[in-house]
Amino acid sequence: MRIVFDTNVYISAFVVPGSRSDLAFRLALRGAFELIVSREILAELRGKLASKFGLAEPELNRVERTVLGVAALVEPGIELRVLEDEPDNRVLECAAAAGASAIVTGDRHLLRLKVYEGIGIMTVSELLYAFPDIP
Predict the structure, then answer these.
(1) Is residue 108 packed enough to be buried (19+ CB in 10 Å), middle (13-18) or exposed (0-12)?
(2) Whose CA is closest to 41, among 16, 66, 67, 59?
(3) Is residue 134 part of a domain?
(4) What is residue 19's three-state secondary structure?
(5) Would residue 111 count as lying in a domain?
């Protein structure tokens, strides 16, 4: 199963230890599913962690290395205009290019879609529910 995390999932995973997003990221670390990311998602992650949480360059580099140590990097090569919020479109592009099974997000605009081109869109709680046997 190939899964794309939206930026808000990564932020919660790295800023709130023990959060559901942290648990979801740990599932990826354990190989429960294949995590997929794009440069665009990483750039948004770095930007938000710097502007909203004050992370400095060394911390941002550590987060990026951690994500890239787990996730496969894809270059979408497509440009979608499905939603008004451009970062949401970058998530859809990543998932479509990777042939992902699902997008995991807390974003209400993405969640409203429910499915995009056969790619399920779910919350972190829904993802965790799909893996009840993994502590």
Answers:
(1) exposed
(2) 67
(3) no
(4) coil
(5) yes
What is the total residue count of the chain?
A: 135
Which residue pairs from 93-99 have beta carbons closer than 8 angstroms and sit at least 24 positions apart in sequence? 93/38, 93/40, 94/4, 94/36, 94/37, 94/38, 94/40, 94/41, 95/4, 95/36, 95/119, 97/38, 98/2, 98/4, 98/36, 98/72, 98/74, 99/2
Number of structural domains in the chain: 1
The pLDDT of residue 135: 58
pTM of the model: 0.95
The pLDDT assigned to 83 comes to 87
20 domain residue, yes or no: yes
Residue 16 sits in which domain range?
2-129
Residue at 9: amino acid letter: V
Tens digits of residue pLDDT in 67-123: 999 999 999 988 889 888 889 999 999 999 999 999 999 999 999 999 999 999 999
Closest CA to 123 of 24, 16, 17: 24
Is 112 contained in some domain? yes
Q: Residue 82 belongs to a domain with what CATH number?
A: 3.40.50.1010
